[in-house]
Amino acid sequence: HAGADAMMGAVQAIYDFPKPSIARVHGATVGGGVGLMLACDFAVAAENARFGLTSVRNGLLAAIAIPVLIQAVGPRMARQLLMHGGVFDSATALRIGLVDQVVKPEDLDATVATLASELKLGAPSVQTLVKKLVTQIDGLPHDANVAEILGAQVATQSISEEALEGMKAFLDKRKPKWVK
After folding, report:
1. Exposed/middle/buried for 38, CB within 10 Å: 0-12, 13-18, 19+?
2. Tell me: the pLDDT tens digits for 14-30?
3. Bridge partner residues of 25 (DSSP)
4. How far is CA 110 from CA 23, 46, 50, 115, 179, in A?
5. Residue 31: left (phi > 0), alpha (psi -120 to 50), or beta?
6. Cα separation of 5 and 64, whole Å?
7. Which is it for the CA torsion 155, 160, 166, 170, positive or negative?
C-alpha cells in the first residue's frame, strides 16, 4: 500500500507541478513509468523506445497510470492497453496519443532542449493558469458556468504584471522580461 501511495503521489506531483513538464523517453517505459510520463505536459520519445502496461500479465493492476492514461488515449484504448498488457513501439505510442513526438535517438536531447527553450517564451503565470484551468474545466459541461470561470480568469490575467509587460514588450518590439 505504501509503495502504491508513493507512486501515485509522484504521478500527482508531476501532474500538479505549476510549470510545463517534459518527459524525455528512451529505452523501455512500462507500468508506473508510463504513468510518470503521462503526468508530464509533453512527451518526446526516441524511435527505439518501447512502451507497455504489462502489469496484467503479472496479475497486477496498473492503477497508477489509469487517470492519466484515460486522459491521453481515451477510455476504450485505455481498457485495451490495460487488459492486453503487451509491449509496443514508439510509432504505436504516437498513433494512439501516448506521446507527442517521436524522433531519432540521436536527436532526442536536442528536440527536448528546443521544446524547453520554446516553453520559456511563454508567460509563467499564464502557463500555470492554463494547467489549472484545463484540469478544472475538463469534466465540466460547456455552459454558462465555464464561460463565467474563463471570463473571470481572462479579466484577472489581462491586468497582471506579466500581461502588462508582455503587451509593452510587443509594442516596443522586444522580448518580455521573463524570456532570458
Report:
1. buried
2. 999 999 999 999 999 99
3. 45
4. 13, 12, 20, 9, 19
5. left
6. 9
7. positive
Only one residue has cell 511563454, namely 122
Cα–Cα distance for residue pair 94/121, rounded to 1 Å? 26
Instruction: Tell me which amino acid residue 178 is.
Output: W
All 3 cell numbers of residue 77?
484504448
The cell for 121 is: 517564451
Cα three-residue angle 22-116-29, rounded to 5 degrees:
25
What would the grid cell of residue 45 be? 520519445
For residue 31, pLDDT beyond 80 = yes
Q: Give the position of cell 473571470.
A: 152
Cell readout for 42 is: 509533453
